[in-house]
Amino acid sequence: MLLPLLTSTLLGYFLGSLPFGYLVARAKGVNIFEVGSKNPGATNVRRVLGAGPGNLVFALDALKGAIAASWALFASTRMTISYDLSSLGVSEAGRVEGAGFVELGVAGLIGALVGHSFSCFTKFRGGKGVATSLGGLLILMPAAVLIAAATWALMFFLSRYVSLSSITAAVVLVISAYALSLSSLLCGLAALVAVFVILRHLTNIKRLLNGTENKFVRKSTSPKL
């Protein structure tokens, strides 16, 4: 079981390392590491270049997480998945070379999160992992993610702070996972992702406490490139 888990983690890392935020911005003639918050995540790309590029980066980053968490589905035609409708969580899964779908998915997503945040292609710089987490967790715990996503949308509507919305959603994800009686592995993953997201937002938390965090403002004009 160790070899499939290591393989999944490594594949997830290299997949997560694909710097879509940097590449999309570079295609527009912008080095995203030098403008705005200097973060290659979808929020900064959207703030600097507008909704189109920002939404594209968000979708691609989420796709990285989804593929990393679900590659086992494509690894064997013997894979079977069933859902426990009483808890709206994954109750059991088929096996691929001795490692279960859930275990492989968790390993792949963790690898993707590390790769996204510390990409080997951009001198170990990267985003904060929110979109990548969302994509992978939608595969592994869809109901908990939908609750967290609804919380994010509500918090963003009320505050216009992307950072505060992401932190709040991360905490609600953990609460939802336990409330839905998901497996201990998935609850642990939810907690790990929440801690990871919060740690990646420490500078934002400081700015929130100091009252200097920037609210999201819809871009009205094109940047001068």
- The separation of the N and C termini measures 51 Å
What count of domains describes the coordinates? Answer: 1
Oligomer: single chain
Order of helices and strands: HHHHEEEEHHHHHH
Tell me the structural class. mainly alpha
Helix content: 55-70%
Strand order of the largest sheet: 1-2
Query: Given the structure, what is the number of helices?
Result: 10
Give your account of this protein's structure.
The chain has 225 residues and is mostly helical. It has helices at residues 2-16, 20-27, 42-49, 51-75, 101-117, 130-140, 142-159, 162-179, 184-200, 202-210; strands at 81-84, 89-93, 95-96, 99-100. The strands form two sheets. It has a two-stranded antiparallel sheet. Helix 1 (2-16) packs parallel to helix 5, helix 4 (51-75) packs antiparallel against helix 5 (101-117) and helix 6 runs antiparallel to helix 9 (184-200). The longest helix has 25 residues, at 51-75.
Short overview:
65% of the residues lie in helices and 6% in strands.
Task: Summarize the helices and strands and which ones pair or pack.
Layout: H1 2-16, H2 20-27, H3 42-49, H4 51-75, E1 81-84, E2 89-93, E3 95-96, E4 99-100, H5 101-117, H6 130-140, H7 142-159, H8 162-179, H9 184-200, H10 202-210
Antiparallel strand pairs: 1-2, 3-4
